[in-house]
Amino acid sequence: ELQMQSINWSTEYLPGHTDNFVSNEVIADGITLDAVWANLVDTAKWTTYYDNAANIVLDDQTSSKLKFAEHFRFDTFGFPIDAQVMELVEPTDGKTARLAWHGWQNGDADTQFDVYHAFLIEKLADGRIRLLTQESQIGKPAQDLAAQTPNPMLNGHQSWLDGLVRAAKK
Asked: Which of 27, 37, 39, 40 is nearest to 131 (CA)?
């Protein structure tokens, strides 16, 4: 069995030290790492398999595909989020694919919201693909989400991964 990879966290967003943290994972077969990546990195495809992302606008509108350091905006979980890509590793040469962004909603003490949302996609033995997404959040809205059962982020991100698998199988 291959050693499973993990998310690269900055100190500020280290799980266990933030107001909310969720982790979702799917292991699937019958899909390729490249197919998953194509559906994840291309924001024009998000709404075709995930119903919790809307009004996605990239600063660089020459392409709908995310690039390293790109700034973009989208609506999710009822929040208008500004975001910047902090990590982007394409799945070339058998590398584990990584995509992460810092997202935020500017506001006062009750509405300021900062998140770090990361995806990791890797090949496992026997042709399986592992999709991991984790998000760590800071702020009053994060505290409110963490207090709900089930945590809305947990269900929302599971829907994102399940949608990615379905899209990659097409």
From this structure: 27
What dihedral angle (degrees, nearest 10) is formed by the CA atoms of 59, 62, 65, 66?
-30
Torsion-angle region of 94 (φ positive above 0: left; ψ -120 to 50: alpha; else: beta): left
For residue 88, how many other CB atoms are within 10 A of its CB? 17
Q: What is the DSSP code (8-state) at residue 65? A: B
pTM (predicted TM-score):
0.94
The number of beta carbons lying within 10 Å of the beta carbon of residue 29 is: 11
The answer to whether the CB of 137 falls within 8 A of the CB of 21 is yes
Amino acid at 80: P
Per-residue pLDDT of the chain (170 residues; tens, 9 = 90+): 456 789 999 899 999 999 999 999 999 999 999 999 999 999 999 999 999 999 999 999 999 999 999 999 999 988 899 999 999 999 988 789 999 999 999 999 999 999 999 999 999 989 999 999 999 999 999 999 999 999 999 999 999 999 999 999 99
